[in-house]
C-alpha cells in the first residue's frame, strides 16, 4: 500500500512499518520479471526506435527488492532494447529528502516510489506528469479499479500503484484463545468498539501493580500517532478529512467520541500509560516478546515477520528477537464506532511519474509509462507483493503469482480480502489547496495535541476544540461540518 500501504525502524526494516520479509525466489528473479507479454510491449530485438533512458528513485519496497535492481534493469532492456532503466536506490529514511532535493533543483527522476497521499504535494509544485493520455487501455485494464483511483488527483493519472495494503490490527492467536476471544468470527464479521474494549481487558496480565502483558499496543511516538487516529476515525464515519461536499470532517462530534475512546483504553489499563513513547520498533518488539495480546497498526507482512522469527527460535538462531516467543499472527479488523459501517484505512503506494522544468517529449513520456507499468505489474509486482504478503492488484500479477509459493495462513488471506472489500474510496476530487490546509492542521495541531492527549496532559474535549478552531480558521464556518 502509506498511507498510502501511505504504512510501516530497524525491527520493521522500513520506517513506515514494513517488516523483514521472505526471500524472493531465485527462479523468479531471473525470469526477465515475467513482463515480456505486458500490454504496451511493442519493441523487438531489431527495434530502430530512438534510444532513451528512464531514471527511477526506489526505496527498499520489500527486504529483497533492491537486490534485484540489476536484473530489473536487464529485464526491461530485453523487453525494450532501445530503452535503458537506470535505478537509483534510496533508504526509507532518506527517500523523501533525496526526492525533494531533486524536485527543488528542477531535475527529479522520471519515476519515484511514493505513497499516493504525496501526489497532491507534487501536483501543487507542478512537478508530476499526467499520464492519462499515454497509459494504454490495456495497461489501465490490468489494474483493480480502487487502487488505480488512488493514483489520481483531479482528472489526472500520475502513476501506477504497486499494492493496496489494508491497515489492520494483529493478534497473538494463543493469547486470544486463552482469553476466550472468537477471532475467526471477528475476522469475518468485525467488532464494535465496545466489544473490542472488553476483549482487550481480558488480555491484560498483572502481578500486583505490575502489568506483564497489555491487551493492546499501538505505535504512537512521533508521526505514527497520526496513524493511530486515522485508522480509528475511518470506522467512525469519517473516511476522509473532507466530506463529499468538501467540508472539513474532523469537526464532527464523532471525532470527539474517538478521542474519548483513545484516552479510555489507557485509563482502564488495557494500554500502557507510556503509550506516547512507543514507536513502531518497540511496538513490534512488545508483540513478539508477549507483552501485548493485540498490536497495531498491523500489516499483512507482519505475519511473514513473525513466521521468520518463529523459525529462528526453532533453530536456536541467535538473531531471533531477544526474549521473543513463538507467535501465530492473526489479522484482525479495526473496531467500528457509533454504529458506523467498517471502512478500512489503506496504503496505496506506487511508481509516480515526474517531470522536470521542461515539457517532456511525447516519446519520452511514453517510455516512462512503459517503465512504470513494467515495475508495477507482472512478475516484478508479483514477487514484491509476495514478499510483503499483500494482495495482488493486477491481473498480470495474479497470473504470475500462480507459480510462486507463499506460506500464509488462509484465514489471514480471507481476512485481508474482507478488509480490502471495505477499503475507503480514493478522493481525487479534493482540491490540492484544501488538501494542503488539512495536512497543515494535521502537522501543526492534530499530531502535537494527540501526543498531549496520550500523555494525559490535555482532555479529549480540549483537543477537539483545538482542532475545530484551527479548521474554522482555515476553512471558515461554512467550510466545516457543524453539529
Automatic annotation (TrEMBL):
Residues 28-50 are annotated as: Disordered. PROSITE patterns: PROKAR_LIPOPROTEIN. It comes from the Bacteria. Residues 28-47 have a biased composition (Low complexity). The keyword Signal applies. InterPro entries: Bact_solute-bd_prot1, SBP. Keywords: Signal. Residues 1-22 form the signal peptide. It holds the Pfam family SBP_bac_1. PANTHER family: ARABINOSE-BINDING PROTEIN-RELATED, DIACETYLCHITOBIOSE BINDING PROTEIN DASA. This is Extracellular solute-binding protein. It comes from Paenibacillus sepulcri.
